[in-house]
Amino acid sequence: MDLARLAGLSTQQIRNYEAAGVLPPAVRTGSGHRTFTDRHRRALLTYRALREGYGSLPATRIMRAVHDGDVPGALALVDEVHAGLHADREALRATLVAVAALERGPSRAAPGADPRGLRIGEAAALVGVRASALRVWEAAGLLVPGRERGTGYRVYGAAETRDARVIHALRRSGHLFAGIRPVVEALRAEGSTDAVREALAARAAVLDARTRATLTGAGALGAYLGGPD
Fold it and tell me: Taking 50 as the threshold, does the pLDDT of residue 143 lie above it?
């Protein structure tokens, strides 16, 4: 089978896919030439379907695990991507709740925030990021936590926790610091949530598209696993 021509790829790309484990090992002729079968065609189609929803690297890891005979490992990788999508949706939901609280009145606390303020590790855990991320955002001027008297420890109140949620959601949506800064500043100065809601709506659309793509990819993987060797 001329798999390269059939798939619209170069022969080198097909070799690379085989070396990466995306394709099962090709049978060699007596002269050393690779022979590709219908299984290789199905593997390539499965990889392409997975790549749309899971991304190139996870799709490669999934197919490599399958061809290494580690189907449970491949399924665990699938679950890992799905869990990440679920976490993204939960973070998006929490940010929407925080924005809604802000719209009801500036005195309302961010969801889960301690009215006495949170230390950096507590705030990071609540938002779902590393403490180092909060420090980076602070250094960029996006976050302005208070300081505890005597110790000088950072303290994150309701407003700072809300800002961190918004920054996290916007970063996950691919926004750069330069684009996030005016949104956060408008939140602080005017309580304007229009730009945030637009960004969150765009993020929700991206998540919906990815979830649909993962469903297609998972279906293709299931068919490949159940097909002939």
Answer: yes
> Angle at CA 163, nearest 5°, toward 199 and 158?
135
Q: Is the pLDDT of residue 105 over 80?
A: no
Q: How far apart are CA 152 and CA 101, in angstroms?
A: 29
Q: How confident is the model at residue 1 (pLDDT cuts 50, 70, 90)?
A: low
Per the CB < 8 A criterion, the answer to whether 68 and 21 are in contact is yes
Hey, how many other C-beta atoms are within 10 angstroms of the C-beta on 1?
12
Residue pair 24/34 in contact (Cβ under 8 Å)? The answer is no
Angle 21-27-31 from CA coordinates, rounded to 5°: 125
3-class secondary structure for 109-124?
Answer: CCCCCCCCCECHHHHH
Round to whole Å and give the CA distance between 156 and 160.
5
Facing residues of 147 across strands? 154
Q: Kindly report the pTM of this predicted structure.
A: 0.69
Q: How far apart, in whole angstroms, are the C-alpha atoms of residue 13 and residue 19? A: 10
Stronger pLDDT, 229 or 145, i.e. the higher one = 145
Q: Residue 196 phi/psi, 5° resolution?
A: -65, -45
CA distance 23 to 17: 6
Count CA atoms closer than 13 A to 32's CA, side-chain side.
0
